Amino acid sequence: MMSGTASSAWLPLYGLFYVAVMLHWARVAARENGDYQTFFSAGHSLAPWVSVLVLAGASLSGWFVLGGSGIVAAHGFSFPSVLVAGVSLALPGVFFFKRIWFVGQRLRLSSQAEVFRSYYESHFLVVVSTLIALVFAVGFAGLQMRALSQIIETLTGGTVSVLSASVVLGFILFAGSAIGGMRAIGYFGVIQTVCAYAATVTLAGFVLFWSGGFAALNNGLSALAATPEGAAKFLVSGVIHFTAGLGRGGELATANTAVANLSLALAFMGFQASPLALKIVLSTRNANGFGAGQTWVLAGAFGGLIAFAVAIIGAMGLIHPALSVEAMLARLQEGSPWFAATVFIGIAAGVQLLAGLALLTAAESAVRHVYKPYFHSTLSRRATVTLTRVAIAVLILVTVLMQSLTPVALSAIAALALPCAFQLWTPLLGVTWLRWITRPAAATGVGFGLAGVLLTEPFGYQVLSFLGLELPWGRWPWTIHSAAWGMAANLAAVLIISAITNRDAFGAEAREARDFLYNTLRTSKRSHGLRSTAWSAALIWLFLALGPGLIFGNAAFGKAGAEGAVWLVGMPSLWAWALASWVTGVGLVWFLAYKMEMASPYRHAIPAYEPPPRLRRDQSATEQERLRILVITGAAAFVLIVLIAFSFGG
Amino acid sequence: MSSPKTVDRDLLVFSIWAVLGFLGAGFLLEGLTRDAYWVSLIGIAIIVAAFIAHIIVNAVFDTGFANGEVALGIGGFGLLAFVFIASWFTGGMSMADFWSGLTLFSVLAAGLFIYLSTRHGLRGAFSKFHIKPSDGA
Questions:
Q1: Of A15, A186, B51, B81, which sees the most CB atoms within 10 A?
Q2: Pick from A25, A32, A338: CB nearest B25
Q3: Does A540 have pLDDT greater than 90?
Q4: Are B40 and B77 in contact (CB under 8 A)?
C-alpha cells in the first residue's frame, strides 16, 4: 500500500500530461487554422478516419461509461436497449451522414443550422438547432462534468472540492476548444477517443479481476436473480404499462417495459441528428469513411465495448450497489493509483471530447448563425471567431456555476438534450430522403415534437407547475420516453401539414440540393432490388432487439426466479439477447451501409453550387429594429411570466 | 504548418503511446510495487508492443523517428537507468524489481539494436554512431 502523498501524486501528474498533449494539439490546430480562417470547420479538411473516431468517441465513450453503467447498476438488464446502443446510434448515421455531407459539400455548408437555413429558409429551425446545441453544451455535458468533478473530489480525498475541480476542468475545456476550434477538437478527439476506449476496457478488466472472473461475476448475478426483489432486474416487464408516469403513480421499478426500451433507444438515436454530430460530418474532407465508421467503429467496436465492458462495469454495481464507477476508481486508487489515474483520465477525456464539441457548436451557432445574421451582419470573420471564443467562455462559466449551484436544474435540462435532438429527425429526413416534407411541415413538426418532449419531461412540468398549471401525468407516461411522445406529435404534424401545403414551395438552394442528391446518389439496380429485404431485416431487428420482441429475451437463454436462475449460456438471458442483437445489428448496419449504398464510398469530386449574385443591402437599420423588438419582447415575456407565476403558481 | 500526412502520423503515434504507453507503465509499476515479476513482464510486453506499433506507423508513412521522439526516448531511457542504478546502490530493491528492471533495459537495448540493423543494415547502424571527421567537411 502506498502513502497518501505518493498515491495522490499520480492523478495530477497524468492530468498535467493530458493538458500538455492537449495544448500541443491546440497549437498545431491554431497554426493550421491561421488563427481564425478555418476555426469553425477545419476548412472541411478533417480526415475521414479522424471524423469516424471523433464521432464514435463523442457518441458513446465517456458519458456512456458513466450513464450506461449507471443504468445497468440501477435497473439491471431490464433495459437491454442500453447495451445495443452502439447499433442504435450507428443506424441514424447510416441514414443521414452521407447525404447530409453531400448537401453540405454542394452548398458549402458547415453546420446543421446552415443546412436548415439553406434548405428550409426557416429561422425557427435555425434557432431550434442553436438551442439544442446550447442544451447539450450547458446541460448534457455539464452534468457529466459534474460527475467528473465529484470523482476528482473522491480521488483526492476531498483536497480538491467539486467546485475547484469544475473550474479546472472548465479551464482545460476552454483551452482545448477556444484555441484550436474544430480542428483541435478533431485532432485531440482521436486521442481522447482511444484513451476513453482503453480506460473502459481497463476498468472492466479490473471489475472481472475483483469479482474473480466472468463466471464468478455471473454467479453473483445469478444469486441476485434468485431473490424476489432482484429477479425483476433481469426481466423486461411486459410490452407497455398504462401508468400516468413517474411521479404520478407510475413506479420506477415497473417502468422497464419493451416500449420504454424502444423509446429510450429512439432518444439515443437523437445524438446522431444533433448539431454536434453534424458539425463533425460537415467538417470532414470526404464521405468515404462514414460506411466503415458506422459499421465497424461505432456499431462494431464501440457497440461491443458497451455490450461487454459497460455491461460488466454496470453488473458489478448491480451486485454491489455501493460500487459505482466513482467507488470503483476510489478502490483502484488505494492499491494502484497509476491505473486509477489512467482510467480516470480516459473517462474524463471522453467526456471532455463531448463537452468541447458541444461548446464549440453551441457558441458558433449562437454567434454565427443567430447573432451575426439577425443582429450584426457586418461582423468580420476575425471578430466572429473572437466573439465565439467569448461565448465559449461564457457557456463554460454558466455550466460551472450550474454544476455547483443548481444541480437539479442542470439534470432536468440535461434530460432534454437527446429527446429534443431526436425531433430533428423529421427536417433531416426532409433534406435527405423524404422530398415530400414541406417547409411549414418540418418547422411545425419540430415545434410540436419539442412541445411533446417538454410536456413529458421534468423540466416542462416544473416550469408549468411554477406557472400554476399541474399536468395530470408525470415523466414517461405509459412507460414511453419523452423522445417517442415528441416524435408522435412531430410525425402527426408533419404528415398532416405536408398533405395540405405546397410541396414545390422551396427556394433555389433547396431545389439545387434535391436535384443534386437525386441525380448523384441514384442507387444501383441491385440495391433497388434489395429494398424489400432491407425493410424486412430492419423492422425484424427493431422488433426483436429494441421493440416488443424483447419480452422473448426474458426466457430465450434461461430464466430468473426464486427457484434459482437457470442461464443456458452462463449469463442473464437478456444480456445474451442483447449480445445477439448487437451481433445481428452490426450485420444490419453493414447491409444498409454497403449493400443498400446508404453510406457507401463515393469517389467523385463535388463542385460547389454557384448561387445567382445578389445585391447586398445595408441591413443595419433592420438589425437595430430587430434588436429593439427582441428587447421589448423579452421584457414583456418576463413581466407576463412573473405575473402568471404570482397569480397562479408558486 | 504540418502537412496532413504528418498530422495523421503524429496522431497515430500519440494514440499508440497514450494507450499502450500508460497501460505498459501501469503494469510495470504494479509489478514493481507488488514484487510480481510476471506482472512487470506484461508491462514490458505492452511497451514493446507500443514500439512495434510506432515502427509500423513509421513504415506506413515512410519515415523514421522524429528528432523530438529520439530525444524523448533516449532521455527517458537515461532517466529510468539512473533511477534503476540509484535504487540498486541504495539497496531498496527486491529481486523481482531487479529482474524487472534488467529485463526492461535488456529488451529496450536489444530492440534498439534490432531496429537499427534492420532499418540501416549492420554497417549502416554502426555509422549512425560513428561519425568520421571528414563527414563534416
A1: A186
A2: A338
A3: yes
A4: no
